[in-house]
Amino acid sequence: MITVFQKPKAVFNVYPTDVINNSQVVVFTNFSYDGVTWLWNFGDGNTSVEESPWHKYESEGTYKITLVVTSKDGCTDSVMYKSPVVVDYETGKIRFPNVFKWNGSGPTGGYWNDNQLDDNTFRPFFTNVTEYNLQIFNRWGVLIYESSELHKGWDGYFGHANLALQGVYVWKVIGRYADGTYFNKIGDVTFLH
Asked: For the domain bounded by 12-87, which CATH number is listed?
């Protein structure tokens, strides 16, 4: 008598396949069937036996991912993911203008768009920033504005729609770039009416 065992099928997905900062994790979703054990090889010397693991890559590089699935009868199937995981920590930068002017019509909330020229909002010009906190202080050192949203700058108003006086204000920004580097910058900006 011949016994035929069901062969498992190894199938999985990876997200994301492009890692740009050192705090990102890669999630491996297992769609295999007829398997009872799994052996993942993340391509960087680390492995896992979890069904659908996640992994954090510690170094830049290109990593090929494989999965070996074993059935209850000891049959195996393996597969390599169609594209490698590419880890390339991108450097970042952030800078601010030194002057901006009142829009002459009232509060805007400070929201702005990348494709729009706007000299009525004090806002950052940035690349690869993942964490951010901006504070604006008056000349007496009183905090009058704060934002943790990269696309929300200062429109010159504080409190309940109070227009700030024309003059020089101090800004402070802290945050982190995509490569994991923290930044802490201070400067001043002139607000014109």
From this structure: 2.60.40.10
